From TrEMBL:
Domain NERD: start-end pairs: 14-110
Organism field: Actinomadura rubrisoli
Signal peptide residues on this chain, from the entry's feature table: none
Gene3D superfamilies: P-loop containing nucleotide triphosphate hydrolases
Any Pfam family: AAA_30
Lineage of origin: Bacteria, Bacillati, Actinomycetota, Actinomycetes, Streptosporangiales
Transmembrane segments: none
InterPro entries in UniProt: NERD, P-loop_NTPase
Protein's name according to its UniProt entry: AAA family ATPase
């Protein structure tokens, strides 16, 4: 069976049962399964649920789960949730069209040898038995009864039927079988491809977690809140949602942070809500707001900034309504002016202090590596398992550019769109960055992160960002480069930000010096990281 396993999202129980039945059958051949394919990638394979390459037949299989019926030429499909869908093109016509397209494609690629191969189709409805109809012959259909008894017999019956209708065909030579499978496999074996896996991971991330719902309920009831959470726990997402909901209650709301890039990102997300979004440098408050929502609050912990913010909220720190989201793990010292006494001052007003413990951004592998090398509490990863984190050894800027170029080519071959890739520079200087030597950079295909780009993040092209600027943002795939050292606290803080940005795939370029430093850090933090990793697997 190709692929060997199903993804967890958007696979109905009926589709899964057919997959398992074919996997466990005694049929001699290979079954290609395409249910993990996005519809837009390959129209042909999106229309063929399964293709069976048998010893003497290529069989296209269409699966229709749930309730299926046909009246007056209109087909109706109903899933378990009660959703209905109608179509004048029934499953038999659909799979027949797909079969002809498949045969034409193979003939175009492999010539006259395909003319000696028998093709056929089979429709399976594992949940219902359709009454006989003029649109199909009995041998081309497998209903609930035959499926539950033995799907192998249904396939063998279809095989005999199609072979009898094409007597001039012959068994498929082994070499042609291999060639056909090699040709078809890239169109079907998308489950392991990086971008397909990333989409599957993200489908669980876009929803609020149960923990976040609980925090929203708490914040709506309390006038003053400081919410703690590590990278990936959804602080920015939750902060924006808090601001939106407070505005729906009729309150004037200011969303504030230090980074102009992050402010641009959130401003776009809150467009149309009448929430004012400003970086601290942009503050120009004429009348105090009813609610102040602060993201990345650790960046604002100086008495000068707190004094300015206090004037922005009605009632000030002592009697005002305000919510702070902060990460004290390894983001508190990035600006070099964090004042612990300033934080203690805000805490003296006795805000409620909930925490976010579940990492809903990073895969288990990324969360583990981030904690193992920085010691930061990255929370319990809930996004699931993903690709392994890749370390690329490099010696100098030229070799780093070459290694990065090879990584980007690999992502392209895995059909990862360029806008889903961000290159994060720990050094943060474009002029000395290994990315500047890339062909894509010379051709203007890499966009540098700015506050304006953040408003359309991730944009339409590959992006480059400093670790400082990308705080609060994320992307599917991240390549971390320009790591000079990881000895100082600031260097570790920047590394923490960089490693925690990807949702699915993380690639890191390391020199011998940095590799040695990372080994020492891993030895120090491995135990705590492993404990968190095991919790994420439960």
């Amino acid at each position: 069976m190709v692929p060997t396993e199903l993804g967890s999202e958007e696979i109905t129980s009926s589709e899964r049962r057919v997959f398992e039945a074919l996997s466990g059958s005694s049929l001699s051949g290979t079954a290609l399964h395409s249910l993990n394919l996005p519809d837009h990638e390959y129209k042909l394979t999106a229309e063929l649920d399964f293709v069976l390459v048998l010893d003497d037949l290529v069989l296209a299989v269409e699966v229709k789960g749930g309730q299926v019926s046909c009246r007056d030429g209109v087909w109706t499909y109903q899933d378990r949730a009660g959703h209905h869908r109608t179509s004048r093109e029934g499953p038999f016509k659909q799979v027949q069209t797909g079969m002809f397209a498949l045969r034409a494609r193979l003939r175009q690629r492999h010539g006259q040898a395909v003319d000696d191969v028998a093709f056929g189709f089979l429709v399976i409805t594992p949940d219902v038995d359709l009454a006989g109809g003029f649109e199909w012959d009995d041998e081309t259909y497998c209903g609930r009864g035959p499926f539950n008894r033995d799907v192998t017999k249904a396939v063998e019956r279809a095989r005999a039927y199609w072979k009898a209708k094409q007597p001039a065909t012959y068994p498929i030579p082994k070499q042609l079988q291999t060639t056909v499978l090699q040709d078809l496999r890239p169109s079907f074996d998308r489950s392991p491809l990086l971008d397909a896996r990333a989409r599957e991971l993200e489908s669980a991330i876009v929803r609020l977690t149960e923990e976040q719902y609980e925090r929203l309920d708490l914040i709506s009831e309390e006038p003053r809140v400081i919410c703690h959470g590590g990278a990936g726990t959804g602080k920015t997402f939750l902060a924006a949602e808090v601001a939106r909901r407070q505005r729906l209650l009729g309150r004037r709301v200011l969303f504030c942070c230090r980074s102009e890039v992050l402010a641009g990102f959130v401003r776009k997300r809150l467009a149309g809500t009448n929430v004012d979004v400003m970086a601290v440098s942009e503050l120009n408050v004429i009348e105090p707001y009813d609610v102040l929502v602060i993201d990345e609050a650790q960046d604002l912990m100086t008495f000068d900034i707190l004094t300015e913010l206090e004037e922005a909220v009605r009632g000030g720190w002592s009697d005002g309504r305000w919510v702070m989201f902060l990460d004290q793990n390894r983001q508190a010292h990035l600006y070099g002016d964090f004042d612990h006494e300033a934080l203690q001052y805000v805490e003296s007003f006795r805000p409620v202090r909930p925490s976010l413990k579940f990492n809903c951004r990073n895969t288990r592998e990324i969360a583990f590596q981030t904690r193992a090398y920085t010691g930061a509490d990255t929370g319990v990863a809930t996004a699931g398992a993903g690709p392994e984190v890749t370390f690329a050894p490099v010696d100098d800027r030229a070799s780093e550019t070459a290694a990065l170029d090879a990584r980007l080519r690999a992502l392209h071959e895995h059909e990862v769109p360029p806008e889903h890739v961000t290159i994060v520079s720990v050094r943060g200087d474009w002029e000395t960055s290994a990315a500047k030597g890339l062909r894509d950079a010379r051709r203007g295909r890499i966009a540098q992160l700015t506050s304006s780009l953040a408003m359309t993040w991730p944009g339409t092209s590959m992006t480059w960002a400093s670790a400082m600027d990308i705080k609060g943002l994320e992307n599917r795939f991240v390549c971390v480069i320009d790591i000079d050292s990881v000895e100082s606290e600031t260097e570790l803080d920047l590394l923490y930000v960089a490693l925690s940005r990807p949702r699915a795939g993380l690639w890191i370029a390391t020199t011998p010096l940095v590799s040695g430093q990372l080994r020492a850090l891993f030895k120090e933090h491995h135990s705590g990281a492993m404990d968190a990793y095991q919790k994420a697997k439960v």
